[in-house]
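Input/output pair, single chain:
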Amino acid sequence: VQLQASGGGLVQAGGSLRLSCTASGSSLSIDAMGWYRRAPGTQRELVAAIATGGGTTIAGSVKGRFTISRDSTKNTVTLQMNSLKPEDTAVYYCNVFQGMRPYWGKGTLVTVSS
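Output:
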């Protein structure tokens, strides 16, 4: 499975960005999809995840500001990020599961200036 992410960049605090990630390269179904992030000097953390049935898990630090959605027909997961804060600055990684096996994208940088 290959993951292609897009949508990172530089934005001012209070602004919005949308990250998208598409999985390809396998005829098997994709299970859970999500986004993690790692800020400088910290460990990678879950931002949001969405199951095949649509159930979501959202980190408390972004709840109410970020929304995750998926289009299973296109194997695409989208993270809509609103009201961005400088502390959201991080490299964001797309993650999907196929069965129990995880796959990771290369990461896309999101920088929020104050």
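The CA atoms of residues 6 and 74 lie 15 Å apart. The radius of gyration is 13 Å.
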